[in-house]
Design brief:
Length: about 250
């Protein structure tokens, strides 16, 4: 008796293409760039390894800002001006992005004030008046207090006032700062996470419709020349998935 063989199963090419696209999207989701500063001691910012393969490097170094050999970037700065460095976003970067800065702590107890750290998104990579899209600003104010706020510049943009109640001139407890950007909605957010793992949403604001994020900016301003003054950074990352999601 002749046995009937089952007909080959027809596979829809559309299903295959959709499945392949899903796998590619899954593989690409996550960190766009990441610096863990696990480099040898004395490694400059521009030479620090990006753990994302082919992810690129920062555009410039900061003098006296180098890794300490134990996974931290120690930032110092002589007086005068603002130092900027930029990471160029990939051309195919999504419209929703987050910049994460994990601070080990800081000491801003020097004789001079107005020290500041800025991290966020820019439309240009110029030293003179960069076109900021949205950024976090951690600064020591003229009265000596330390504050964290969100800035978005350009027509139609708004600021995030933030909260300085828990920030000290000398901070030894780690603090994670996250700037989220949604270019489709024209909004940004500023959130922190402390050592207890609790997220604190400081607020959301509007970005300028005329500014598109092409770069991540990291900046230091003011005078950090006093012997004990420094800003200690454990990690900087750019991601296309919410780093604070449960």
């Amino acid at each position: 008796m002749m046995k009937h063989q089952a007909a080959p199963l027809a596979i829809n090419p559309l299903i295959l293409s959709l499945a392949a696209a899903a796998l590619v999207a899954s593989a690409e989701a996550g960190e766009v760039a990441e610096w863990k500063f696990d480099d040898p001691p004395g490694t400059s910012l521009k030479s620090s390894a990006n753990s994302v393969s082919g992810g690129g490097a920062w555009s410039a170094n900061f003098d006296t800002t180098v890794t300490d050999g134990s996974g931290k970037l120690i930032s110092k700065k002589p007086s005068g001006g603002i130092w900027n460095t930029y990471y160029r976003l990939p051309d195919n970067a999504p419209d929703k992005l987050w910049v994460v800065v994990e601070l080990t702590g800081w000491n801003l107890n020097g004789a001079k004030v107005k020290e500041a750290v800025r991290a966020g998104f820019c439309a240009t990579d110029t030293d003179d008046k960069p076109m900021v899209v949205a950024q976090a600003v951690l600064e020591r104010k003229p009265d000596g207090s330390v504050s964290l706020r969100g800035d978005a510049l350009g027509d139609g943009s708004t600021t995030v006032t933030g909260d300085s109640s828990s920030l000290q001139q000398q901070q030894t407890s780690p603090l994670t700062i996250v700037v989220g950007l949604d270019q489709d909605a024209g909004t940004y957010s500023l959130t922190t996470r402390g050592t207890d793992g609790t997220n604190k949403v400081l607020g959301t604001g509007k970005t300028s419709p005329g500014r598109a994020a092409k770069y991540v900016r990291f900046s230091i301003a003011g005078d950090l020349t006093d012997p004990e003054e420094q800003i200690s950074i454990d990690r900087i990352a750019v991601t296309d998935t919410d780093p604070l999601a449960p």
